[in-house]
Amino acid sequence: MDTAPQLDRTGHTVNYAITVIPGQQYTVGAVHADGLTGQAQTDFDGNWKLKPGSVYNASYPRTFLRNNSALRSLQPYTAVYDTKADPATHTIDLNIHFLRNNNRG
């Protein structure tokens, strides 16, 4: 990032022109989901929109897992996920681990 200040002594202000040079976007490399039963896995696969090759959106996994009613209606699952970034290929692999919560009916 490069900034160039422009002073306005009369108005007692400073304006900055900012130039941002973004890096390469990361894309989804692979998505692995484990711990789901057959129908839950089918529903996950059909509703998950962040496919390999898509531009990675860091908020999508959390939002999907919190808001996806299709998975919640099938079984009481909890989920955790982790990501692994590869700076050489600019990809992110996503691993989602579903656990059946036996404390719910």
Provide the gyration radius in Å.
21 Å
Shape: elongated
The share of residues in helices is: 10-25%
Per DSSP, what share of the residues sits in E-state strands of 2 or more residues? 35-45%
The SSE string, one letter per element, is EEEHHHEE
CATH architecture: Roll
Strand order of the largest sheet: 3-5-4
CATH topology: Ubiquitin-like (UB roll)
- Alpha-carbon distance between the two ends: 53 Å
Give the integer mean of the pLDDT values.
86
Please state the structural category: alpha+beta
CATH superfamily: membrane protein fhac
CATH secondary-structure class: Alpha Beta
Give a description of the structure:
- The chain has 105 residues and is an alpha+beta fold.
- The protein has a single domain, classed as membrane protein fhac (Ubiquitin-like (UB roll)), CATH 3.10.20.
- It is built from three helices and five strands, in the order βββαααββ.
- The strands form two sheets. A three-stranded mixed β-sheet has the order 3-5-4, with no helix packed on it.
- A hairpin with a 4-residue loop joins strand 4 and strand 5.
- The radius of gyration is 21 Å and the shape is elongated.
- The mean pLDDT is 86.
Quickly describe the structure.
The chain is 23% helix and 40% strand. It has helices at residues 38-47, 60-67, 69-74; strands at 2-8, 13-19, 27-34, 77-86, 91-100.
